[in-house]
Amino acid sequence: MEWVPAPTPINENRRAQAVEKTGIIGTDQIYLFDIYLEIAKDISGYDAGSFSLYDSKNQCMISEIGKPGERELHKKHDKNASVCSYVLLDKKPLLVFDLTKHEIFKFHPGVIAGLVKSYCGFPVINKDGYALGTFCMLNFSEVKEMSSEKVHLIEKLVSRLALQIDTQTEQKELTSQKISKSIDIFMDSRDESTLIDYKNFIDICSGLSLPSEKAINLIEADLCEVKNNEVVLSLKGNELQEKMNIVTKIHNQVKVEGNEANSLIDNALDKLGEL
Questions:
Q1: Count of beta carbons in the 10 Å neighbourhood of residue 101
Q2: Considering the entire predicted model, what is its pTM?
Q3: Which residue intervals of the chain are DSSP H helices?
Q4: What is the distance between the alpha carbons of residues 150 and 169, in angstroms, rounded to a whole number?
Q5: Which of 122, 183, 226, 251 gives a 20 to 30 Å CA spacing to 39?
Q6: How does 17-31 read in b/e, with b if 16+ C-beta sit within 10 Å?
Q7: Where exactly are the structural domains of the chain?
Q8: Does the domain at residues 12-171 carry the CATH identifier 3.30.450.40?
Q9: Do the Cβ atoms of 32 and 71 come closer than 8 Å?
């Protein structure tokens, strides 16, 4: 017999649209998801883990740890060639401790080649019930089982991951709506306004330095003025900024490494155990 790809999910079109809506594929968000795999690897004792999203055609690798060779982040694979595609078909984990004994998976090229022995796949399901992707644990060296307690703990972990994606998606939509509304307000403030003027206005609101020649339209519209050789918002400009609901914030990106990362994982495990 030959390898048989997973059938297409019944709700595939809506599911794929939900994945696209997240805006995650093709972006560099590794640091947001690696920690989940690190925790799951620690819980399971498995050799490796991966988190992928699935668009209409491909398995899109978002994060992976423990696999030999270079990381294949953002790489797309034909989802028909993936065992993980079967995980999208159910809301329950797909647990195959011995792949060589599974009636379908034993014919997968990777299993035939002896590259992977055990597999546990967890669907990443959003608030609307769509399986956006898979969170998979793999063991290469030997057949390895996973206790029901560990499976349950990883399920909770994956639920937290799905919640994070839902939150990011909602924030992304709100941001898009906010930008669209602010553009409308800005354009209505002056008939001759252009999108370039809007961008320049946002830059000034953000505290960026802008040459006066670039801000000439904003200055003529009395939205900006030059003080101490620097273009700043005028009183009218400040009023427009407030009306557009533009708030400047400074975001600090925290990178966690070494013992601090281990401590973070230990604390996360403790909290998960309390769920």
A1: 10
A2: 0.70
A3: 12-22, 30-44, 109-112, 148-189, 195-205, 216-220, 235-243, 258-273
A4: 29
A5: 251
A6: ebbeebebbeeebbe
A7: 12-171, 190-243
A8: yes
A9: no
